[in-house]
Each structure stands twice: as structure tokens, then as C-alpha cells.
Amino acid sequence: MNALVASHTMLWIVVVILCFVVFALMRQIGVLHERVFPAGALMTRSGPQAGERTPIDRVVAFDDSQITLGDGLRSTLLLFVSPSCPVCKTLLPIIKSVERAEASKHPLQVVLASDGESTDDLRQHLEFITANKLDKQRYVISKRLGLAFVVEKLPFATLIDKAGVIRAKGLVNSREHLESLFEAHERGVASLQEFLASE
Amino acid sequence: MSVAVAISFALRFLLAFVFLRGALHKVLHYGNFRTQLAAYELLPAALLPAFTVFLILLEAFLALSLLFGGSMSTSFIAAALLLVYAAAMALNLLRGNDDLDCGCSGPAGHLSGNPSGETPTISWALVVRNGILLVFALATAIPLPFTSQRLSMQELSTIALASLAVILIYSSIEQAIANHQRLARYLASRSSGNPGLPL
């Protein structure tokens, strides 16, 4: 009987320790994935590349005012979004905060771009703008723009410097991705991935 | 004390853990969760704030109730809530909205929100997970041949250890689901010929 109790107690100890070990192992695999898969925005091979001039330098905003991409005064963060993309919505407050943080370092304008020019689409855009308190002067609806930058997936961001040259671009899902664009620009590389690969 | 009693306790504690974590997650990421809930496109926008608060209170109530005794009705409410969650996910998967943020707590919380290669099967994994939790919830509704006598120290420790083991194993499985998602995402981005990625 005594031996049974001893073996039972021993087994419980082993089971719980093993559970902890399995959990720790799983966590480690998770951390490993995060390290292997860098946090930088994903670059795409198609479309105008970093270092090239922006294919379009003048766009018309939602309220019919003019926006110049690379007006010699400030750089532009061109962000392609859509009212029907949930990730974009979660990204909007992040954009505002990144804008504030980056604008304190150098002059920056953030332009949101979307497509869909039918009346029904326009109503959706208007709802999107009001619901998220966006700036109509910085909201562009243009299919041409998306085509020119070969935007395949949203949310997609392009950083254009004040001279109108594309500095960094990529798919952005998080604050880290957005910041990686500015980081890449400051380090003079096209993407964080390129920077890591060159290390 | 029969084995059934120990299992019932362990399952109840596991469910309490899941709901408590869920409620905490929703409180801490209140704004985010509301956006994610809106993206499920199941509720009119006007109901969202009230429903979010309702979910938080319900989960907190379930967690505490399961922790301290619990009744048959608690188990059924828990099962119903899990069913609603699973149905909401399944419905959106069937609609083809597999780029949806799950809004779940835990490591598998970021169901996707990634632009490169969603893996809907992963989201189905979460539906299956909810189904299993649902069965657990129903299992705790089975009335136990419970004697009024107090549990001995040994019985209490068995329940505590079993609960700990079950919670750890559950967490490991969730982490495994999250790891699988990351790996799938990574492989998808590699096969799509992403130029910037190391390795």
C-alpha cells in the first residue's frame, strides 16, 4: 500500500512537470517563429520599387482639394485602405499615433487611398470617414493610384520622400510594420528584410 | 470520490480559466475587440457596445460561477456561449471571410490579420477547439454522485493537480494552433516569392 501511494505521488509530480515542459516547449517554438519571421512590413516585387520616382505625383482628395506626393516640403505616407477591410480599421488609430510620433521628427503627410467610385461605394467611404474621424482632405478615391502602385493586398503602405522618390513600401498589419517603413527609410534600405539579409 | 468527480472539477476549472482569460482579454483590448466583433458582421452597429459589455459580464459571471461550485444551468449557459462563438466563426469561414481576426484571447488570438496566405483550416481548428470545450461544458452539467462529506486533503490535491495539468495541456494545444498559423503564414509568404525574407 505504501509503495502504491509513493508511486502515485511520484507519477503526479512527473505528470505536472511534463505538462510544464510541454507548455514551455510550445512557447519556445512560438518565440522561434517570431524571430524567424521578421516583424518588418512585407515587400512586394511588383510595382514601382524603392528608389524609383512615384508614378503619380498629384491626386485629388475626397473634398476635391489637391494633394501633391513629394511637394519638396514633406514626405508622404501613402496608405491604401478600404472600408471593407477589417485589418485597415484596426490600423487607423495606430496610423494616427505613428503620424504624431514621426511628424515630430520630420514633416510628414499621411494620405489614405481607396478605390470604388460608384455612388454606393461613395456612401460607404463617407461612412468610413465619419466613423473613424478621418480627414477628407487626406482621403483619396482613385483606382488609378492603386493600379499605378500595383496594390494587391490591403493594407498597403508606401513611403514617399519629399522629392517624390519611393523610399519604402510593403504590406502593413501592425504598428511594427508601419514603423519598419520609417526605419528602413532612415537606414537607407528598401525594407527591413533587405536590411536583415545584408547583415 | 470517484474519478468522475475529479474530472468534472478539472473541466470546470479549465472552463473557468478560459472564460476568465476571455473576459480579461476583452476588457484590456476593449476597443480592438469591438472592431473585431463588428468585422464578424453579425450584429447591427448600434448593438455592438452593449453586446460587448454583455459578453464581458457573461464571461466573468461564468468564470466565477464555475470556479465556485457552478450549477447545471451555468454549464448550459457556458455551452451555449461556446456554441455561439463557434457558430459565428464557422459562419464567417463559410462566407469566405477567412481574413478575420478571431478576437479570441490566448496565443491563437491573432487568427489572421495577415495579408500573405490565410489558412482557413486553422480557423476551423478554432471551431473544433470550441466544439471540444462545448463537450466539456456539457460534461460538467452531468450531476455527480456527490456525497456531503468534505473532500480529504488527498482528494483536494488530486483535483488541484489534475486541473493544473488539464489547463497546461489546453494552453499547449492553443499555442500549437498559433504556431501552426505562424508557420503556414511564413511558408505561404515564401512560396509567393517574397524577395525580402531571409532564410
Which quaternary structure do these chains form? heterodimer
Q: What is the string of SSEs of chain B from the N terminus onward?
A: HHHHHH
Largest protein interface, residues of each chain: A-B, 39 and 38 residues
DSSP summary: helix tally of chain B: 6
Largest sheet of chain A: 5 strands, mixed
The radius of gyration of chain B is: 19 Å
* Count of strand segments of chain A: 7
The major beta sheet of chain B can be summarized as: none
Structural class of chain A: alpha/beta
DSSP, total strands of chain B: 0
Mean pLDDT of chain A: 79
What is the helical fraction of chain B, as a range of percent?
55-70%
SSE arrangement:
The complex is a heterodimer of chains A (199) and B (199).
Chain A: H1 2-36, E1 58-60, E2 66-68, E3 75-80, H2 86-103, E4 108-114, H3 119-131, E5 139-141, H4 143-148, E6 156-160, E7 166-171, H5 175-187, H6 192-198
Parallel strand pairs in A: 3-4, 4-5
Antiparallel strand pairs in A: 1-2, 3-6, 6-7
Helix pairs in contact in A: 2-5
Chain B: H1 3-28, H2 30-39, H3 48-67, H4 72-94, H5 120-139, H6 153-191
Helix pairs in contact in B: 1-3, 1-5, 1-6, 3-4, 4-5
Plain-language structure description:
The complex is a heterodimer of chains A (199) and B (199). Chain A contains 6 helices and 7 strands, in the order H-E-E-E-H-E-H-E-H-E-E-H-H. Chain A is α/β, with parallel strands linked by helices and 199 residues long. In chain A, strands 5-4-3-6-7 form a 5-stranded mixed β-sheet. In chain A, helix 3 links the parallel strand 4 and strand 5. The longest helix of chain A is centred in the first third of the chain and has 35 residues. Chain A is elongated, with a radius of gyration of 23 Å. The N and C termini of chain A lie far apart (64 Å). In chain B, helix 1 packs across helix 5 and helix 3 crosses helix 4. The C terminus of chain B is likely disordered. Chains A and B meet through helix 1, helix 2 and helix 6 of A and helix 2 and helix 6 of B.
